[in-house]
Amino acid sequence: MSASQPKVGFVSLGCPKALVDSERILTQLRVEGYDIVPSYDDADVVVVNTCGFIDSAVAESLDAIGEALAENGKVIVTGCLGKRPEQILQAHPDVLSISGPQDYASVMSAVHAALPPKHDPFVDLVPDYGLKLTPKHYAYLKISEGCNHRCSFCIIPSMRGDLVSRPVDEVLREAEKLARGGVKELLVVSQDTSAYGVDLRYAAREWRGKSYQTRMKGLCEGLSELGLWTRLHYVYPYPHVDDIIPLMAEGKLLPYLDIPFQHASPRILKLMKRPGAVEKTLERVQRWRAICPELTIRSTFIVGFPGETEEDFEQLLAFIDQAELDRVGAFAYSPVDGAAANALPDPVPEEVKQERLARFMALQAEISAEKLERKVGTVQRCLVDAIDGELAIARSMADAPEIDGLVQIQDGEAAGLRAGDFCDVRIMGSDEHDLFGLVGDDEE
């Protein structure tokens, strides 16, 4: 053990929701006087927050645990893979502790057992918004845990349980603290943002002297009062999503929706246990764009799901061609241990999955390139993420961090831009994913 403050190394894997869990654990560690260090050599113990959703994520998590054990020797495991402790122990029997997602108390108990705290309240200061793993200018805002859906390819409910929403006033107070700490963009995350508050019967709570319902629209109305970029992720295309599009048209929310459609064949959607009214979905997308022409829609899809025929796949291609989605991710189906879809008949051969994935991504690349080309000559409001030599690497309102495209500002350094700055960029060129431009009007 270190002679000074006890030191904890931390490895965070998985989705933004897991990243928020990591931030909460790190905040509690700092509150209790632990130093957070970036290397195995400096750490007295290492915490690994794992992912366990798909096979590749499980493999990555097990590799990370193994590396931490080899480099440090004292490892505490938490996160989604922690719901399958036997799998972890089979590979790594020497870990100190295993706990599941959101089990902050078990993590802290394991840290206390391995490394008792040495806390000095007069020295150890933590910002009131907690510790963050993202850059200072943006943050993930988790509004709920768990999910009430039972999609056949997904095991999240078995890992994180049914939907548990945070009361709206609690979420708004956290957002307010983040804004005071310098955050300029909030990324709202959950398993199902559209279902937010249903478990609380949309109970009204007060914030800043005004009543807001614990539901998606009420949350968005409250967040719009902060004057930040607010970006919505994991939104199911329920009818009440219509209610927030006017807020986007009025500039109160970013005109951006992340909607995991997953497929477009009604038959496959039924096998997935997903909403299957594809024509209504297309009509809804068109109606949203009529209200808010600036709207960006990103989505994810699975190709090669068990039973997917060529006809089903052609329906998917026709959907993305008609919908002209702005940002799309896709992956070939792979069995997830414990998922109901594993029992479905007619698995698609691996070479067919990969061939369909390539065709899908080639079509989407054409759509994306065409849509981005339409922005050449326009001025886009952007948020700078980093300075790289002469370039400023930024994102427009249409781009979420890590998953979407970038705006490369060619004269960013000359214009004196810094990470966290807003600026207007005149778009001079584009490719399949990114935009290129020069600083336009005055920066904020």
UniProtKB/TrEMBL annotation:
* Compartment(s) where it occurs, according to its Swiss-Prot or TrEMBL record: Cytoplasm
Q: Which Gene3D superfamilies match?
A: Methylthiotransferase, N-terminal domain, Nucleic acid-binding proteins, tm_1862 like domain
Q: What are the residue boundaries of the MTTase N-terminal domain, all occurrences included? A: 6-116
Checking SMART domains in the record gives: Elp3
Q: Which reaction does it catalyse?
A: L-aspartate(89)-[ribosomal protein uS12]-hydrogen + (sulfur carrier)-SH + AH2 + 2 S-adenosyl-L-methionine = 3-methylsulfanyl-L-aspartate(89)-[ribosomal protein uS12]-hydrogen + (sulfur carrier)-H + 5'-deoxyadenosine + L-methionine + A + S-adenosyl-L-homocysteine + 2 H(+)
Which InterPro entries does the record cross-reference, listed alphabetically? Answer: Elp3/MiaA/NifB-like_rSAM, Methylthiotransferase, Methylthiotransferase_CS, Methylthiotransferase_N, Methylthiotransferase_N_sf, NA-bd_OB-fold, Ribosomal_uS12_MeSTrfase_RimO, rSAM
Q: Cite the cofactor comment.
A: Binds 2 [4Fe-4S] clusters. One cluster is coordinated with 3 cysteines and an exchangeable S-adenosyl-L-methionine.
Family the entry assigns:
Belongs to the methylthiotransferase family. RimO subfamily.
State what protein this is by name. Answer: Ribosomal protein uS12 methylthiotransferase RimO
Coarse class of the protein's main subcellular location: cytoplasm
Instruction: Offer a single GO CC term for the protein.
Output: ribosome
Q: What task does this protein carry out?
A: Catalyzes the methylthiolation of an aspartic acid residue of ribosomal protein uS12.
Residue limits of the Radical SAM core domain?
A: 133-370
- What keywords does the record list, in alphabetical order? 4Fe-4S, Cytoplasm, Iron, Iron-sulfur, Metal-binding, Ribonucleoprotein, Ribosomal protein, S-adenosyl-L-methionine, Transferase
Which cofactors does this protein require?
Answer: [4Fe-4S] cluster
Keyword Plastid on entry: no
Q: Which Pfam families match?
A: Radical_SAM, TRAM_2, UPF0004
Tell me which residues bind [4Fe-4S] cluster 1. C15, C51, C80
Q: For binding [4Fe-4S] cluster 2, which residues are annotated in this chain's numbering? A: C147, C151, C154
What are its E.C. numbers? 2.8.4.4
